[in-house]
Amino acid sequence: MQFMLLFSRQGKLRLQKWYISLSDKEKKKITRELVQTILARKPKMCNFLEWRDLKIVYKRYASLYFCCAIEDQENELITLEIIHRYVELLDKYFGSVCELDIIFNFEKAYFILDEFLLGGEVQETSKKNVLKAIEQADLLQEVINSNIPRTLLQVILVY
Amino acid sequence: MVVPSRKLQDLIEEIRGAKTQAQEREVIQKECAHIRASFRDGDPLHRHRQLAKLLYVHMLGYPAHFGQMECLKLIASPRFTDKRVGYLGAMLLLDERQDAHLLITNSIKNDLNQGIQVVQGLALCTLSTVGSAEMCRDLATEVEKLLLQPGSYVRKKAVLTAVHMIRKVPELSNIFLPPCAQLLHERHHGILLGTITLITELCERSPAALKHFQKVVPQLVQILRTLVTTGYSTEHSISGVSDPFLQVQILRLLRILGRNHEESSDTMNDLLAQVATNTDTSRNAGNAVLFETVLTIMDIRSATGLRVLAVNILGRFLLNSDKNIRYVALTSLLRMVQSDHSAVQRHRPTVVECLREVDASLSRRALELSLALVNSSNVRAMTQELQSFLESCSPDLRADCASGILLAAERFAPTKRWHIDTILRVLTTAGTHVRDDAVANLTQLIGGAQELHAYSVRRLYSALAEDISQQPLVQVAAWCIGEYGDLLLEGSCEETEPLQVEEEDVLDLLEKVLQSHMSLPATRGYALTALMKLSTRLRGDNNRIRQVVSIYGSCLDMELQQRAVEYNTLFRKYDHMRAAILEKMPLVERGGTQDEEIKESKEAQLSEASLVPTEPQASELLDLLDLLDGTSGAAQPPPPLEPSPGDVLVHLLDLPCDLPSASPPPASIPNLRVFEREGLQLNLSFVRPPGTPALLLITITAINTSEADVIHFICQAAVPKSFQLQLQAPSGDTVPAHSGLPVTQLLRILNPNKAPLRLKLRLTYNHFGQSVQEIFEVNNLPMETWQ
């Protein structure tokens, strides 16, 4: 996968993850172009489109569009499953997720994605493992914020 | 002092509360000023919060590069909260094309060596997102160490980081290849999936790695078999399919390993059959696996039965209610239509059915596939389907569909009649969408089918009477009416509806075309020429035609004006020759490539073959004259030629219009082959225009049947002094190989004394890299040329 974008029905970007190196300008141009193209498509159309030399797989969940760019040899159908799995993870983490959750906790949305995909490849196929990892990192963050001594921290981390 | 910093959520709230863009910009500018101030003052406690706010602002499209250094500071901080936000910021703000990103290399190195797994995870994730080649080289050994760590959390991340590193620096394959064998024994799905991704990456990059991993095929087969047969675990299954992510990845690797490798392909044959038959296809996850299986079967050296099974699965996909699945089926069938044509052909009815899809991306695929499936046995039925698609499809598909039909008709037309009908139908339904060459192709086709002239002209006339807006149709119709107008008026033709056409109707129609604001200049040219040609084909008087032609003598379009003026002259001064000049177009020889044909027919009809008569070089001509009149002492320059009637005539002959440039002469004098050498032939054809008995026109036609072009071709001629000779410029100086477009040149000889003609020719040219010069006398000239 080359990049993933989340944007609202109004075309507002909610999350962007780039696994290829591009300039800011180029990223903005691509985002604008894709958001426009996808929002213009009718709901009964299929979820794939060819764009430059990439394949775009997108799917709408409530008010949010999830959009992935994959290469020619990659499987569009499994990419739909990747999107769906990510939505499930967000849903489990936030408890029936809505767009506002992702707006106000965008950094959490990134953390979850980074536990599921790495460098554009699937790293963990078990939902349980992904959520466990996030919970532990969250826990660690709280522990530090409440200034628990470092020795105790080590104990927690070993689990 | 620093204003107490606001929380991220509060900022987001305020930005969302902004009523206008301007208001939003103001809020953000104010906040960015705060963030900058806070960064400047170095407030370590709130730094992560400031950066988080900046990242939000960045997502809205505002500049955030000033946060880059803060990311570095946060990453270097010992606090986990700082690190988490710092690494997130680094992934979003750092760019490997700026040197700043290298500054995190050291922090990543420290974090990788540190024992805390979550922190190692953050570092690996960042490395595999923004890690540049330089960073990858610096950190490869650290990642290698982590590959064999006990904790699966870090290990799975390290494996995928290795994938990224190989993509950036292919030489690092050497480090990451050896641990793969051991990693493949792993049971943890994440690590296993990562390892298979890593092996795939290695195999795609080096043939040596590919060979190395071909021996793990049995192991991969075993892993996949276990996965398929053990039923599902709640942890890894999606709608009854156990870990489709892992299955797809293994299948993809098998595809790479089995490609062009008999033994590996054999090993996986049974398994692929098993997956293909047992996968539950009620949901997308199962179809994803099945689709990947099909791709693998088609790509490796699989058994014939299996390949048929795979194509049939795709055929079934075409009937699926999910449009995504229909889409991938069409895409894949399109890919294999070349290699497994007959298997794909079996699903033709379903493919044709998909032409009716409302989704343009699907119908485009269906169109491409349908066009690929047309062959000589189904061309009639398929064309019918495609024609009805053409009538209803969206405008952006129309051009592709039209040219596709024309191409298929060109290749597989069962009869000429059918071919003409097909093109005609395309022109009437999608005339504005066809490429220019359709006109040339159709005129050529009709010209070549003598038995269909009457039929074609009638069909075209009716089509034109209905619609004069479709330019290509109008052009072909005008051309045909001009050429075969007599047949149109002649009465019945058993193949079409009885059609009683009056001369006045035809002229009305052509005038309408000339006057229509929709007509392009080229179309008007066709119409004008058609009118001109009709002047010899109609029984009535020509006054009306003469009138129309003279009106266009003052037309603003130069091309049209020139034609009109020339035609006018033809009416007034050379009326006696008009019939000969407006003869039917000779058949254009078919041969060579499509392009040549198009060029040829175009040139014959409408190109502006700019033939500017040039005077032959006097000195060379004198030499030749010397040869002929050896007795007459000092050579004299040839008498200056008065501008004679022939001049204009010659111009007309050379003109674009449909005037034959090599037509059979009215008083038939047999042609003469005067020269042949290494495939280069020179033929002379003779015309003695009635009414000017002293004038003889000789057309020299040079044709080249050899493998190499004849270049710098120059032909010069000389006659005895009692004759007057004018040599026109040739149509080119290159005679293309393989009987390409011949070079023609016109000689005008005035023989007032009716003396026996003697003609000497000098040829110079370059052929097969050698320059050749030939001087010879044409000695068997027919008597008719001077008597």
Quick structural gist:
The complex is a heterodimer of chains A (159) and B (787). In chain A, 51% of the residues lie in helices and 22% in strands.
**What ranges of chain A have pLDDT less than 50 throughout 5 or more consecutive residues?**
none
Structural class of chain B: alpha+beta
The Rg value of chain B, from CA coordinates, equals 40 Å
Provide the succession of SSEs of chain A.
EEHEEEHHHEEHH
Strand content of chain B: 5-15%
Strand segment count of chain B? 10
Query: How would a crystallographer describe the biggest sheet of chain A?
Result: 5 strands, antiparallel
Helicity level of chain A: 40-55%
Largest interface: A-B, 56 and 71 residues
Overall morphology of chain A: globular
The counted number of beta strands of chain A is 7
Average pLDDT across residues of chain B?
82
Order of neighbouring strands in the sheet with most strands of chain A: 2-1-5-4-3
Number of helices of chain A: 6
Oligomer: heterodimer
The rounded distance between the terminal residues' Cα atoms of chain B is: 118 Å
Characterize the biggest β-sheet of chain B.
Answer: 5 strands, antiparallel
Gap from first CA to last CA of chain A = 33 Å
Subcellular location (chain A): Cytoplasmic vesicle membrane; Golgi apparatus; Membrane, Clathrin-coated pit
Family (chain A): Belongs to the adaptor complexes small subunit family.
Membrane topology (chain A): Peripheral membrane protein
Main location (chain A): membrane
